[in-house]
Write a structure and sequence with these properties.
Number of strands: 29
Number of domains: 6
Low-confidence stretches: 1-6, 632-641, 687-700
GO cellular component, one term: plasma membrane
Main location: membrane
CATH class of the largest domain: Alpha Beta
Largest sheet: 7 strands, antiparallel
Structural class: alpha+beta
InterPro entries: CheY-like_superfamily (IPR011006), GAF (IPR003018), GAF-like_dom_sf (IPR029016), HATPase_C_sf (IPR036890), HATPase_dom (IPR003594), His_kinase_dom (IPR005467), HisK_dim/P_dom (IPR003661), HisK_dim/P_sf (IPR036097)
CATH superfamily of the largest domain: GAF domain
Helix content: 40-55%
Membrane topology: Multi-pass membrane protein
GO molecular function: phosphorelay sensor kinase activity
Strand content: 15-25%
């Protein structure tokens, strides 16, 4: 790898693809060496490599393709050979479908597609996944389209849930009118086999000895062998397989020739064209009754989604078969069928043509929460008058009238007023009445609603995050172009720099919020507990929010207790709690509105109360104000935007301090009130040693020899310029080995080291610097994009004295250097 490749922003991105790109010889590639890449290409490649979701860029007339690690998963064995090659060659098998999309994007049109299926090979076996993708044109400085930026968000879980529900609905509809158990099994097997696209589906009945299998009517694709009617021995397929199935364990084997449970009996499988299979045993009353087998003539990695569908089919098919047998028995001899119905887990009842309830099984009485004397012999509409005019009541009357069965899911209020969801299947009986089956599906409905709500909130959050991260890019891009194309005076340069600084600070704040809420909610932070004066905490928070309050011309009132009042906690985190609540009040209070912060002291606790006369909240929003991603309606200018993380972080931090936070509002337009209650320390803990932390930033008072090591040339150069302006003697190196040589010659007093260096990382470089006498006592400062607790532990173990997160807080760095200079 040559030095010139270190000049590009994507070079210091971690990841397998980024590392591979840095090592590739691009001279013979259509896209050319990185030294010739345009600024636009370097920028979009950096965005692609830093994305955690699949992303790629297609560049130039040759459609040269670069992508990130997540996208490489989709390519499977095609990676890494696909790096830099034509997009049409990478996806040659589906290029006719993709070509119009790429052509439209290259013509300047942005495109968006939801839930597109792809076959990927994350485990070496093709697996279907779904993605929602966007195709955005990338333009050069002359507004000519030079490439396409492609992003994708995986929607596999949601699609699997939707497909599962669709399959369940299809299965219910398919077997609803079938009376023969063999017909039900055959229809369900075909539906599952076609839905999964596998070789075959077979249902086996097991005899009393649990040894002999009788294969029921099955389904087999064109190239697979039907097993219908065959009589087999379970142990012919291997004792380990037989033992697992008898124990009621689901069994999934991707390749019978390599799996130790089946390899010794591969011939028995091959004789029936089986190379991979899933077996789902059905146990009733502790005994193996049936086995559902999914099989294929080729190796097949069975996903949890496929196994879940198979298990659901077993339950539903068995239930349908039981229902069919029960109804058949009812038509032949009703009295003999009572035993079956009495032992069913589903509710079952009979109504005659006059609507008199003539029978209900114990499960039905349990589900409806009624005694037999309240139901049997009584008119159906008198027992359940609330069903009249509902979808359930309409279905009962429809079946009586048309003599055609039907099914419905609907909520029902129980005698104790509890609301439950019930699935009802209604069939015409021979005497002109009805037979109906029903079961409680409340838990399933609740799970489905939670899944849908979580999916909606996730999609809303991703859209909001994308918007919030894109917003600062526009002024940054405009400022960068202005600096390139226009000769500016010193004042205009300072203004442009301030614009870039503000937007970078905004993006940094968004990323910090994401990381902070993740660490706190997962319990990955440790509080620095110490006695603190609540007045200092509130004062520091007010100082941080004052610029926003002034800019919106709010009337702000602060009421603090006159005496020292101590609480135990982490000062930084408690200031963060109050700051977030005040920020929230300022954002959602109209200009010129009122905000009041009042601190009340009680015997055992301290109450911080923030009230405003802003837009207020609905009861529904107030109830979930502290949930992740919850926020009020965004204003038209998006000034009240954000990621919905601040209040969630507040609740987590207050909980860690053994406190409580609440929210209330009289309604929309009537303001809000947030209250934080914290335990109070006894009076003997009171001290005022921790005052406000707003000391002026120290400026460098001594000139230091400083070595800056960063493979990002632009970042290293700018940092060196700032240090030289502060009066320090600065030397810059971009490679770790050359940095070691230079350090031996110059003995720098301070070393600022990037962690993501190519030859050896910053942690290893720090260890080498500590080991050589010239730099053994140098102050080592890590400068990195990684700021998690584990990253700080690693740099500390490597010998670093300080850990700064990019973009570096220059005031903090200058303060550190000032302290170093004072002790030299």
């Amino acid at each position: 790898m040559n030095d010139s490749s270190q000049n590009f922003p994507w070079f210091n991105v971690d990841g397998e693809v980024a590392s591979l790109m840095a090592r590739l010889d691009w001279s013979a590639n259509a896209i050319g060496p990185p030294a010739t890449w345009s600024q636009q290409l370097n920028t979009v490649v950096g965005l692609v490599l830093q994305s955690r979701s699949p992303a790629a860029v297609v560049w130039g007339h040759e459609l040269s393709t670069l992508y990130n690690d997540a996208y490489a998963v989709q390519l499977g064995d095609k990676h890494p050979a696909s790096l830099g090659t034509s997009f049409s060659a990478i996806w040659s098998e589906i290029w006719p479908e993709i070509e119009p999309v790429i052509d439209a994007a290259m013509a300047g049109k942005s495109l968006y597609f939801e839930d597109i299926p792809y076959m990927v090979e994350p485990t070496g076996v093709p697996t279907q996944r779904w993605y929602t993708s966007s195709f955005s044109p990338v333009k050069d400085s002359s507004c000519t389209v030079v490439g396409v930026y492609i992003t994708a968000v995986e929607t596999t879980k949601r699609m699997q849930v939707e497909r599962r529900y669709a399959f369940q609905a299809d299965l219910t509809e398919r077997v609803r009118h079938l009376n023969s158990s063999d017909d039900i099994v055959a229809a369900a097997s075909e539906l599952l086999g076609r839905h999964l696209g596998i070789g075959g589906v077979a249902y086996a009945a097991v005899d009393e000895s649990e040894e002999i299998l009788t294969m029921k009517p099955d389904w087999a694709s064109g190239g697979s062998q039907s097993l219908a009617g065959a009589v087999l021995r379970l142990d012919d397929f291997g004792p380990l397989v037989g033992d697992a199935v008898r124990a009621g364990k689901d069994l999934a084997i991707a390749d019978i020739t390599t799996d130790e449970r089946s390899a010794a009996h591969a011939a028995a499988y091959a004789e029936r064209s089986i190379r991979s299979f899933v077996s789902i045993p059905l146990l009733k009353d502790g005994r193996l009754r049936a086995i559902l087998n999914l099989h294929d003539s080729a190796p097949h990695y069975w996903t949890t989604h496929e196994i879940a569908l198979a298990k659901d089919m077993v339950d539903r098919t068995w239930s349908a078969v039981e229902n069919s047998r029960a109804q058949s028995e009812l038509r032949r001899e009703r009295d003999q069928s009572r035993h079956v119905f009495d032992n069913m887990t589903e509710g079952f009842g009979l109504v005659d043509k006059d609507w008199t309830v003539v029978y209900m099984n114990p499960a039905g009485l349990r589900i409806t929460r009624r005694a037999a004397e309240e139901v049997i012999g009584r008119n159906h509409w008198q027992v359940w008058p609330e069903l009249a005019g509902t979808v359930v009541g309409d279905l009962f009357e429809q079946v009586i009238r048309t003599r055609k069965p039907g099914v419905v899911e609907a909520p029902h209020t129980m005698p104790d007023m509890e609301r439950r969801w019930i699935e009802s299947r209604v069939y015409p009986s021979l005497d002109g009445g009805l037979a109906f089956f029903f079961r409680d599906i409340t838990e399933r409905k609740a799970a489905q609603e939670k899944l849908e709500a979580a999916d909606r909130r996730k999609d809303e959050f991703l859209a909001m995050l994308a918007h919030e991260l894109r917003n600062p890019l526009a002024p940054i891009s405009a400022a960068a172009q202005l600096l390139q194309v226009v000769k500016l005076d010193e004042e205009r340069v300072r203004q442009t720099s301030q614009v870039i600084g503000r937007q970078v600070q905004h993006m940094t704040s968004l990323v910090d919020d994401l990381l902070d809420v993740s660490r706190v909610t997962r319990g990955l932070i440790e509080l620095d507990n110490e006695p603190l004066d609540i007045r200092n905490i509130v004062s520091d928070a007010v100082e941080q929010v004052t610029p926003l309050i002034r800019s919106r011309r709010h009337h702000f009132a602060l009421h603090l207790p006159p005496e020292t009042t101590m609480v135990a906690g982490d000062k930084k985190r408690l200031v963060q709690v109050v700051t977030n609540i005040l920020n929230n009040a300022a954002k959602y209070t109209q200009e010129g509105g009122n905000i009041v912060l009042k601190v009340e002291v009680h015997a055992g606790h301290v109450v911080i109360d923030v009230t405003d006369n802003g837009i207020g909240m609905s009861r529904e929003l107030a109830d979930r104000a502290f949930d992740l991603f919850a926020q009020a309606e965004r204003s038209s200018d998006r000034s009240s935007g954000g990621l919905g993380l601040g209040l969630a972080l507040v609740r987590s931090l207050v909980d860690l301090h053994r406190g409580k936070v609440t929210c209330e509002s009289a309604g929309l337009g009537k303001g809000s009130r947030f209250t934080v209650c914290l335990p109070r320390l006894p009076q003997e803990h009171g001290r005022t040693g921790h005052g406000n932390s707003d000391t002026a930033t120290k400026q460098a008072g001594h000139s230091l020899r400083i070595l800056v090591v960063d493979d990002n040339v632009d970042a290293a150069s700018l940092l060196a310029m700032l240090l030289e302006i502060a009066g320090h003697d600065v030397q810059v190196e971009h490679g770790a080995h050359r940095a070691l040589d230079l350090a031996r010659k110059t003995a720098p007093q301070v070393c600022l080291l990037d962690i993501g260096l190519p030859e050896m990382d910053g942690n290893e470089l720090a260890q080498h610097l500590r080991a050589q006498p010239e730099t053994a006592r140098s102050v080592l400062i890590a400068v990195t994009g990684y700021g998690q607790d584990q990253d700080r532990r690693q740099t500390r173990a490597a010998g670093f004295d300080h850990h700064l997160v990019k973009p570096v807080d220059i005031e903090k760095l200058m303060s550190l250097l000032s302290e170093v200079g004072e002790h030299r």
